[in-house]
Structure formats: structure tokens, C-alpha cells
Amino acid sequence: MGGGGQQTEQGETGVYTWEEVQKHRSKNDRWLVIDRKVYNITQWAKRHPGGSHVIGHYGGEDATEAFAAFHPDQKLVQKFLRPLLVGELAATEPSQDGKKNAAIMQDFDDLRVQAEKEGLFRAEPLFFCLHLGHILLLEALAWLMVSNWGTSWTVTLLCAVMLATSQSQAGWLQHDFGHLSVFKKSKWNHLVHKFVIGHLKGASANWWNHRHFQHHAKPNTFRKDPDIYMLDIFVLGKTQPVEYGIKKIKYMPYNYQHHYFHLVAPPLLIPVFYNFNIMKTMVTRRDWVDLAWATTYYLRYFYCYIPLFGLLGSLGLMFFVRFLESHWFVWVTQMNHLPMEIEHERHQDWLTMQLQSTCNIEQSFFNDWFSGHLNFQIEHHLFPRMPRHNYHLVAQRVRELCEKHGIPYQMKTLWRGMVDVVRSLKSSGDLWLDAYLHK
User: For a Cys-Cys bond, which of 70, 163, 219, 267 suits 357, CB 3.0-4.6 Å?
Assistant: First the structure.
């Protein structure tokens, strides 16, 4: 038998307490628990398909709920886990760690199993074919319009709006394939994901996977969710502003961040930060496959538009399209998360963690289309593999489960969601100023 948190010899397994498991949460010594089984993922993390960070964020913790949320074929994954097994939890130990609520975890697992039995994790092929079709139609119409009607300012502006719309909708579509929510076989989701994000958008599937799954695993958690890593340009939530204020950190005038947000985040996130970061990541990681896919996007774009606008004109049009798309993307993605709780690691159960960091926007045909069904952000975060056209079918049961356990389920109008982004930035900025001046 193993004990004291020490790994047993190969072929043997031990029995561990949570205290022993939690000693193994460093980068060079990392264990986690799935269904009471203890695994040493120290070396495997480097080869993890979703990236080393997302699995590493659960070092020393129970990862059962995250494991079920992200992996469609758990029997297949068990083949990779088996060699990593070092033991199991002692019979006297609870199945969950930290502040995780066993009753909530059981009720949520029952809901997930029931949703799977009802076929809510099965995709409708026609839905995604039509969605891809309307993206390709917009791309074709934009080019045909300037080809036949010329490149006047009015026609060019309309072309840019159509291209920005197709790019935004392609962003929602690649999100579907990236979450393995379309095809039964993961390999087909991965292949089409590379086509959509690479050829249709000029970005990297691996860059997106490694970044986005961290966000889902630990939403709104400092040092674990890259979506709230703001390069010290903004301070978020209620804790970080006070910490920065007390330490007299002033990289920016944060009490004005709700004003300069409009000049920095919506216009520049995609055309500047994301474009640079994606290219840098593909080159530095030598991700030649994703780079090849992205290259096909640029070859197709310049082949179509250089004869019409010239090289500089085509570059200008591309930047303007990214500029428009960036506004769309930032408002949709931030209104679900930025006004919610943003904290350090809390070690909460899946349902509580996702509901405290996520809110919904009211359903309508426009809101569904405009946000790629991310107006159902709560359901998406709880069931990331569920096809988005089924979110509304499980939403009422999620709300009832939240009511049962006293967990707030927030629903807003589209306008209120956007306004709350600015309000939350102002509130955080005021907290920083007060701490900076008086603490």
C-alpha cells in the first residue's frame, strides 16, 4: 500500500487521503482524482490534447466533473489514464475536495445523464450545414458585389459588413466543432474545426483549444482563465482592484477604465492582439499544420481582393473587417462573464463555479443568431459538448436545479448585458481608486 502521498512502485497502487493528494499540485509533481481514482499526470500533461494547462489546473483536485464535461468517449480516454493510475482515495475520504457540495454534484450528474439519454448531445446535421451555407453565401455575395458594382465607398462598406458578419458567424461555427459537439467521432470534429478556423478565418485550432478549454475549466479564475488576463490594462471583479490599490499598482488610470475600454478592447482585440498572438504561437510552437491551414485563408483572400483593391487596399479592408468583427466578438463574449464574480481559485463544484461566473441573455431568434447561441452561456458552460440548438431544451431543468440548491440563475436582456460590462468596469475602477488612495 502507498501512503504519505508517495507514488508506489510500477504496477502497485496505494490508498491516499485528500491531504496527501493535495501535496502533488506543482508543475513537476501533479496528481488529480477522477471517480475516486488517483492519477499521476506529471508527464502526461505535456502530451494532453487539450494542452498542459487545462489539465494542470486540476492538480491536487477532484477533476471528475470536468472530465465528464470535456470527453465524449470516456472509455477511450480510460486507456490513456490506466498507466497513470497510482491508487485511490481512502474509504474514509469523501469523493469531493474543497468546497464542493456532494448533493449538488450528484443532482447535476443525474441531469447530465438524463440529457444524454434524451439525445440532447446528438447534433442535427441540417442545422450546421445551413449555418455553414449562410457563411459561404455571405463570403460569395461580398466578393460578387464589389466585382460587379465596383469599389466605391458605399459598396466597400457594405462588403466589409458582410465579410465581418461571415467572420463572426464562422467564429461561432468553429466554436461548435472545437467543442466536439457536431460529429460523434472526435477526429471529424477536429478536422472540420481546422477547416473552419483555419481556412475560413485564418486562425489556429490548437491555439484556440489550448486557450479556450482553460476558460471553460476554470472560468473567471485568476491565473487559470486566460480570458481575464488583461495585461494590467484593466482590473476586474471586486478582489483584484483592491489588491492593486493596496499595493499602489497603477499601470493605467483604472478609475477611467470604463471609458478607455471602448478605445482598446472592442476595436483592437482581434485585429491586433489575437492576430499577433495567433501567428506568434503557430511559429514558436512550430505548428506547421495550423499555419498551413491559416495560409490558405490569406491566399484565397488576397487572390480575390488584390485585383479589386490592390495590396494596400486589401490589407486595409481586412483590418476594417477584423475591426468590425472584434466589436461583435467582445460584446457578445464579455457580457456573459465580465459582470459576474471574478476571483482567485475557489475549489467549487462544477454547477456552482459555472453559475457564479456566467449569465444568460434572453432568447430570441436574433439573439440566438447574433451570439451563436451563447446567450445560453450557462447551459453551454455546464454542457460544453452539447450542440447549441439543444440548449433551450435543457435550460428550464437547469434553472430548477439552481432554485433547488439556492444558486442564482441570471438572465438579462441584450442591452442590459452590454451595459453591465461598462458598469462592472466602472465599479472595479472605483474600488481600485478607493484602495489606492485610502488603504
Answer: 219
CATH 3.10.120.10 in the chain, residue ranges: 14-98
Find the length of the chain. 439
Q: How confident is the model at residue 3 (pLDDT cuts 50, 70, 90)?
A: very low
Q: Nine-digit cell at 377?
A: 452561456
Q: Is the per-residue pLDDT at 309 higher than 70?
A: yes
Question: Which carries the bigger pLDDT value, residue 72 or residue 133?
Answer: 133
